[in-house]
C-alpha cells in the first residue's frame, strides 16, 4: 500500500460532512431500492471555498481531473467546468477514483461510507475531500483496483489494465448510488453527469439498478474511445442479462461502456456543435452514428472553455515574459527564449511554428512531418512537443537530427513546455484529422499565437479563418484548411507566412484572438439549461 493510500486510510471519518465522497463498490438489487426522489438537505460543513452552495445538486463523475491526474483534455475540463458550474449557482461536486496521485494530493480525505462487494465488484470506501480549486469531491477508495503504478488506464508499459471494466464499472456504479436513497452520504445528487466511456455505465446503473428516477447526462469527449469488452463482463459488473441487447449495452456482439451511456442517458452532449453533427454520419460516427441519429433530439454540442486563470499570458508564471494586448511587443522575448531553449537559430523575423500534441493518426502531426522541408524553406522554424506512436516518435527524432537549428522537438509531455511554446511560437499548428473540441487552439488565441487548424469539430467552431472579409470586420483569428492532407496544410501555412510578413495584419490577428472570451462561463450556462430541463421541479 502506498504512503498516500495509507494516509487516506488512516484519516478519521467525519460524520455529517456535506462534501462529496469518492469511491464505493456496489448497490442493492432493484427490488431493494424502489426509492422516490426527494430532496435531502445538505448538512453544514466547513467550506474554505468562496463559492456558494446552490440547491441543484450535480454529481460530475470523471476518471481524471486536473491538476490531480490528467492524460488529456478531459482532465482539464473536469478540473474547470465544476468550478464554473458552482460560480453560476449549482452545487456541482466531483467523483473520481482514488489513484495514488489523488490520495497523495487529498491527504486529508475523510472516510464517510462503506460499499459492500457485489458480483465481481470489490468493496470500497467513499472518501470526502476538497479539490485544490475548492470544489467538493468524493474519492473512490479501493486499493485493489487503484493503488498501482502506471497511468489511469494503462500500465507503465502502455498496455491497458486488464481489469479496467472493474475499475470503471465500480466508479460508474458508485455514481448512480450517490444519486439514490441507498447513498452512504446525506448529500444526494439530483443529476449524474458522466464523461466518456469510463463512466458510461453510470446512466445504465441509474436506469437498471435503481428505478430510473435520477436523470443522467453523458458528455462525449472523443467517440473513438468506447470501452469495448467481452460480454461476460455484463454479469461480472452486476448488470441484468437482459441489458445485453441492441437496446442496451450490446455493440456488435461485445459489451460497450460508451454505447451503454449513449443509450441510457437522458441527454447527450459533445464538446463542440460541429462535432455533434459530424458523429451522426458514418465517416465519423465510429459505428455509433445510427444510435446518435436516433437520439439526436437529446444531443447537444457545447464548445469547451478553458481555465483562463491558468492560461493567461498576462499572469502566466511558466513563461519568460508576461504580456497582454497592450504589451504584445514583449512576446518577442518569449520567442527568443523558445529558440534558445531548443537551440534554434535566434532569428527574430522568421516564422516560428509550434505544436504540442499526441503523436497519433488523429492529431495529424504526420502531415506536418511530410511537408517539413517545404515549410522550413519558406523560411520558417518548427518546434514540436509530442509523444505517442513509437514509429512517429522515431521519425520525429530522425527529422530533428537532420535539420538542426531549424526544426526541434521534445519527445514527451511537459506542462511548462506547453506554456512556453504557446507564448513563444508565432503560430500554432493543429492538423487534426478529427477533433471533438481541442483546447490548444483556444490557448493559442489567448496567447496571441494564431492557430493553423483543419476545419473539423471544435477547431472549425473556434477559429475564424483569415480572409479579407474577416480581417475587415475584425473577427479573423487564425487559418483553416479544409482537407486532411499535407498539401492542404502547406497551403494554410503559406497563407500564415504571408500574413506574418504584414505587421499590421499580424497584429490584428493576434489582438482579435486575445480579445475572445474562451472562459467556461458560456458553456456552464448551457449545461445548466440542460440540467434544469432534466431535473424534476
Characterization of the model:
The chain has 21 helices and 19 strands. It has 537 residues and is of the alpha/beta class. The strands form 3 sheets. Strands 1, 2, 3, 4, 5, 6, 7, 8, 12 and 13 form a 10-stranded mixed β-sheet that branches. The longest helix is centred in the first third of the chain and has 15 residues, at 73-87.
In short:
The protein has 537 residues and is of the alpha/beta class. The chain has helices at residues 3-10, 73-87, 100-105, 143-146, 164-177, 201-208, 233-236, 257-264, 273-278, 289-294, 331-341, 365-370, 372-376, 390-402, 415-424, 440-446, 457-462, 468-472, 486-500, 503-515, 521-534, and strands at residues 22-23, 57-61, 91-97, 110-115, 124-130, 136-141, 191-195, 216-220, 228-229, 250-251, 254-256, 267-270, 299-301, 351-359, 380-388, 407-411, 427-430, 451-454, 479-481. Helices cover 34% and strands 17% of the residues.
How many DSSP-defined strands?
A: 19
Radius of gyration: 24 Å
Total domain units: 2
Shape: elongated
- Give the amount of beta strand, in percent: 15-25%
Summed over residues and divided by their number, the pLDDT gives a mean of 90
**Ranges with pLDDT <50 over ≥5 residues?**
3-54
Distance between the termini: 45 Å
CATH domain class of the largest domain: Alpha Beta
Look at the structure and name the CATH superfamily of the largest domain.
Answer: Glycogen Phosphorylase B
Helix % is 25-40%
The DSSP helix count reads 21
Level-2 CATH architecture of the largest domain: 3-Layer(aba) Sandwich
Class inferred from helices and paired strands: alpha/beta
CATH fold node name of the largest domain: Rossmann fold
Amino acid at each position: 500500500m502506498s504512503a498516500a493510500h495509507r494516509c487516506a486510510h488512516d484519516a478519521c471519518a467525519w460524520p455529517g460532512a456535506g462534501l462529496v465522497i469518492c469511491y464505493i463498490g456496489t448497490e442493492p438489487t432493484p427490488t431493494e431500492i424502489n426509492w422516490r426522489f426527494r430532496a435531502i438537505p445538505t448538512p453544514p460543513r466547513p467550506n474554505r471555498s468562496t463559492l456558494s452552495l446552490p440547491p441543484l445538486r450535480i454529481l460530475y463523475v470523471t476518471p481524471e481531473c486536473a491538476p490531480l491526474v490528467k492524460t488529456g483534455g478531459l482532465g482539464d475540463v473536469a478540473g474547470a467546468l465544476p468550478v464554473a458550474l458552482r460560480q453560476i449557482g449549482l452545487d456541482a461536486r466531483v467523483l473520481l477514483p482514488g489513484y495514488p496521485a489523488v490520495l497523495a494530493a487529498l491527504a486529508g480525505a475523510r472516510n464517510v461510507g462503506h460499499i459492500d462487494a457485489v458480483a465481481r465488484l470489490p468493496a470500497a470506501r467513499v472518501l470526502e475531500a476538497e479539490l485544490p480549486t475548492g470544489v467538493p469531491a468524493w474519492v473512490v477508495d479501493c486499493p485493489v483496483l487503484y493503488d498501482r503504478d502506471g497511468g489511469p488506464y494503462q500500465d507503465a508499459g502502455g498496455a491497458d489494465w486488464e481489469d479496467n471494466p472493474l475499475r470503471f464499472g465500480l466508479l460508474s456504479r458508485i455514481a448512480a448510488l450517490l444519486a439514490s436513497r441507498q447513498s452512504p452520504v446525506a448529500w444526494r445528487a439530483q443529476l449524474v453527469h458522466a464523461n466518456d466511456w469510463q463512466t458510461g455505465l453510470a446512466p445504465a446503473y441509474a436506469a437498471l439498478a435503481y428505478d430510473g428516477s435520477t436523470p443522467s447526462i453523458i458528455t462525449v469527449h472523443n467517440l473513438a474511445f468506447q470501452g469495448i469488452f467481452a460480454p461476460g463482463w455484463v454479469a461480472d459488473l452486476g448488470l441484468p442479462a437482459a441489458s445485453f441487447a441492441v437496446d442496451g449495452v450490446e455493440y456488435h456482439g461485445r459489451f460497450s461502456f460508451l454505447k451503454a451511456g449513449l443509450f441510457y442517458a437522458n441527454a447527450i452532449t459533445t464538446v463542440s456543435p460541429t462535432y455533434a453533427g459530424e458523429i451522426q454520419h458514418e465517416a465519423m460516427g465510429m459505428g455509433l452514428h445510427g444510435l446518435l441519429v436516433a437520439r439526436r433530439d437529446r444531443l447537444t454540442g457545447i464548445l469547451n472553455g478553458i481555465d483562463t486563470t491558468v492560461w493567461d499570458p498576462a499572469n502566466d508564471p511558466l513563461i519568460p515574459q508576461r504580456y497582454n494586448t497592450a504589451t504584445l511587443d514583449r512576446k518577442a522575448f518569449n520567442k527568443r527564449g523558445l529558440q534558445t531553449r531548443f537551440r534554434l537559430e535566434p532569428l527574430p523575423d522568421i516564422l516560428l511554428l509550434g505544436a504540442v500534441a499526441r503523436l497519433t493518426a488523429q492529431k495529424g502531426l504526420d502531415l506536418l512531418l511530410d511537408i517539413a522541408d517545404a515549410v522550413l524553406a519558406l523560411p520558417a522554424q518548427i518546434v514540436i512537443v509530442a509523444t505517442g506512436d513509437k514509429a512517429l516518435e522515431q521519425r520525429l527524432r530522425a527529422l530533428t537530427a537532420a535539420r538542426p537549428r531549424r526544426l526541434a522537438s521534445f519527445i514527451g509531455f511537459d506542462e511548462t513546455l506547453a506554456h512556453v511554446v504557446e507564448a513563444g511560437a508565432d503560430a500554432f499548428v493543429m492538423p487534426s484529422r478529427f477533433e471533438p473540441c481541442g483546447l490548444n487552439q483556444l490557448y493559442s488565441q489567448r496567447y496571441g499565437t494564431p492557430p493553423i487548424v483543419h476545419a473539423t469539430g471544435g477547431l472549425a467552431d473556434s477559429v475564424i479563418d483569415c480572409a479579407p472579409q474577416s480581417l475587415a470586420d475584425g473577427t479573423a483569428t487564425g487559418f483553416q484548411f479544409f482537407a486532411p492532407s499535407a498539401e492542404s496544410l502547406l497551403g494554410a501555412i503559406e497563407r500564415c507566412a504571408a500574413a506574418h510578413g504584414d505587421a499590421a495584419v499580424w497584429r490584428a490577428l493576434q489582438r482579435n484572438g486575445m480579445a475572445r472570451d474562451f472562459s467556461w462561463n458560456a458553456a456552464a450556462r448551457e449545461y445548466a439549461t440542460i440540467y434544469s430541463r432534466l431535473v424534476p421541479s
